[in-house]
C-alpha cells in the first residue's frame, strides 16, 4: 500500500500532469522548469516585487500588481493543480480565507448542505458569518448515510460541503455517492470536498466527481508547521474566475515567501505521507489493543465503520488518529500533559507529532450540545502522528497512558 501511486491516465491526459505519470516526479518538476527564469534557476526564485513595469499603459507582460498575481504564487498554484490532477488552483492567506472565497460564490437565500462533523472554524464561519451576516441557509447532516443528503436537498440548495475523513471524528464520506445524489437533484449544485487530512497523494476528489477541493495548506501539504495558507482547486473555468476575483477584490493572498516555503514542502510530500501512514497505522493498532483505550477511529483499520468506503476511494491514510480514553476530562488532561515526544498543540500535519483535546481546543467554538451529539467528548483525543521513529512514539504514548490511567 505504500508503493508509488500512479496517476489515473484517463483523467491526466487533459492536464499537465500527463507529462509525469507518477506523483513524486510531478511534485518535484511541474511548474519548476528552470527555463522560465532569467538564469535557469533550478529552485524557483522568490519574487518579492509588489508591482511590475509595463512597456505601454495597460499592457503588462503578465502581472501588474502582486495582489492579482505573482511569479512565486504562479509556481505553487501550477504545482498544486497538477497534484490534484486538476486545471486550476488559487491559493489564499489561510484555509479559512479559502473557505470564505468558496462560500462567497453564493447569494443571499442560497442553501448549503454541510456534514455535521467538520473543522470548528468552518462551522463557525458558516454559522456566524455566512448564515447570520450574509443570509445563507445551512443544514448540517451526517453524510455517511447518503439518504440524509437526499432528504436535505432543497430547491435552493447550491452547495454540498464535507470533509472526508472528517475532523475530529474521522468519518469517511462516499464522495462519488454524494456527487451522484447532488447532481441528480440539480446539476448546478457545487460539491466541495475538504481534502486537508488526505492530501492529493492519498485521495483526489475531483477524479471522483467533486467540483471543488479545498486544503488548509498549513497542514500536510506544507508539512513543516511554519506557514498558514489555503488552496482551492477545480476543473471548472467559471468557478476559477470567481476565485481569481476573490484574490483580487478581497485580497486575502499569501506572501511570495510563504509560497516559496510551501513549494519547497511539496517536494517531499510523497515521502512524508508514506512515513505518516506507516507510523500511524502501527500506532492505531497499538492503541486498539490497549486496555486503557475505549475505541480508536482510524479509517485504515478494519474496525472503522466506513473502512470499505475508505479503501474504495483512497490509496492510504494520513497520520490523523482520534481515540476515546477510558476516562473523563481529568484523565485526558493527565495523558496530554504527560506526553514528551508528542507536543500538546493545535494544528496537524507537520513532521512532528502533535496531540490535542478537541472539546476544549480545536472544536471549542462548536456549541456544547452539538459536541455532545457528535461525540466530541472530554475523553476524545486527536493525535497527528509525525515521522519520528515509531518505537519512540509508541513508548511515549504508553508511558503517558500509564500515568493517566494507572
Describe the 3D structure:
By secondary structure, the chain is α/β, with parallel strands linked by helices. The chain is built from 15 helices and 14 strands. The strands form three sheets. It has a seven-stranded mixed beta sheet, with helices on both faces. It has a five-stranded mixed beta sheet with strand order 10-11-14-13-12, with helices on one face. Strands 1-2 form a two-stranded antiparallel sheet. Helix 2 (23-29) runs antiparallel to helix 3 (71-83).
Keyphrases for this structure?
5-stranded mixed sheet, disordered N terminus, Cys_met_metab_PP, Aspartate Aminotransferase, domain 1, 2 domains, alpha/beta, Aspartate Aminotransferase, domain 2, 7-stranded mixed sheet, cysteine biosynthesis, Cys/Met-Metab_PyrdxlP-dep_enz, globular, pyridoxal phosphate binding, 15 helices, 406 residues, 37% helix, EC 4.4.1.1
Briefly summarize what is shown.
One of its GO terms (cellular component) is cytoplasm. It contains 15 helices and 14 strands. The strands form three sheets. Strands 3-9-8-7-6-4-5 form a seven-stranded mixed sheet, sandwiched between helices. It has a five-stranded mixed sheet with strand order 10-11-14-13-12, covered by helices on one side. Strands 1-2 form a two-stranded antiparallel sheet.
Amino acid at each position: 500500500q505504500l508503493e508509488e501511486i500512479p496517476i489515473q491516465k484517463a483523467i491526466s491526459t487533459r492536464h499537465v500532469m500527463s507529462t509525469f505519470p507518477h506523483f513524486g516526479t510531478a511534485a518535484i518538476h511541474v511548474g519548476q522548469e528552470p527555463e522560465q527564469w532569467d538564469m535557469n534557476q533550478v529552485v524557483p526564485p522568490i519574487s518579492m516585487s509588489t508591482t511590475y513595469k509595463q512597456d505601454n499603459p495597460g499592457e503588462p507582460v503578465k502581472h501588474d500588481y502582486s495582489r492579482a498575481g505573482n511569479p512565486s504564487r504562479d509556481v505553487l498554484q501550477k504545482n498544486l493543480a497538477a497534484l490534484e490532477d486538476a486545471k486550476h488552483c488559487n491559493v489564499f492567506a489561510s484555509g479559512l480565507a479559502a473557505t470564505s472565497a468558496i462560500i462567497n460564490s453564493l447569494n443571499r437565500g442560497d442553501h448549503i448542505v454541510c456534514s455535521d462533523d467538520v473543522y470548528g472554524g468552518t462551522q463557525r464561519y458558516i454559522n456566524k458569518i455566512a448564515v447570520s451576516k450574509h443570509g445563507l441557509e445551512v443544514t448540517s447532516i451526517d453524510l455517511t448515510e447518503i439518504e440524509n443528503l437526499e432528504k436535505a436537498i432543497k430547491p435552493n440548495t447550491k452547495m454540498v460541503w464535507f470533509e472526508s475523513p472528517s475532523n475530529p471524528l474521522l468519518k469517511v464520506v462516499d464522495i462519488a455517492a454524494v456527487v451522484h445524489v447532488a447532481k441528480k437533484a440539480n446539476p448546478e449544485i457545487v460539491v466541495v470536498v475538504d481534502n486537508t487530512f488526505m492530501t492529493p497523494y492519498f485521495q483526489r476528489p475531483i477524479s471522483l466527481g467533486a467540483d471543488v477541493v479545498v486544503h488548509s495548506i498549513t497542514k500536510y501539504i506544507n508539512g513543516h508547521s511554519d506557514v498558514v495558507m489555503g488552496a482551492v482547486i477545480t476543473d471548472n473555468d467559471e468557478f476559477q474566475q470567481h476565485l481569481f476575483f476573490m484574490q483580487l477584490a478581497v485580497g486575502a493572498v499569501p506572501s511570495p515567501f510563504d509560497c516559496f516555503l510551501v513549494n519547497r514542502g511539496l517536494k517531499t510530500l510523497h515521502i512524508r505521507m508514506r512515513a505518516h501512514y506507516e507510523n500511524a497505522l502501527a500506532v492505531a493498532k497499538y492503541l486498539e489493543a490497549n486496555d486503557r483505550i475505549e475505541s480508536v477511529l482510524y479509517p485504515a483499520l478494519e474496525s472503522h465503520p466506513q473502512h470499505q468506503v475508505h479503501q474504495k476511494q483512497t490509496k492510504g491514510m494520513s497520520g490523523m488518529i482520534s481515540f476515546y480514553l477510558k476516562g473523563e476530562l481529568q484523565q485526558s488532561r493527565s495523558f496530554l500533559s504527560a506526553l514528551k515526544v508528542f507536543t500538546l498543540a493545535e494544528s496537524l500535519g507537520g513532521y512532528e507529532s502533535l496531540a490535542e483535546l478537541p472539546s476544549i481546543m480545536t472544536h471549542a467554538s462548536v456549541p456544547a450540545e452539538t459536541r455532545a451529539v457528535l461525540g466530541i467528548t472530554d475523553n476524545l483525543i486527536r493525535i497527528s502522528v509525525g515521522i519520528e521513529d515509531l518505537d519512540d512514539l509508541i513508548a511515549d504514548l504508553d508511558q503517558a497512558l500509564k500515568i493517566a490511567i494507572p
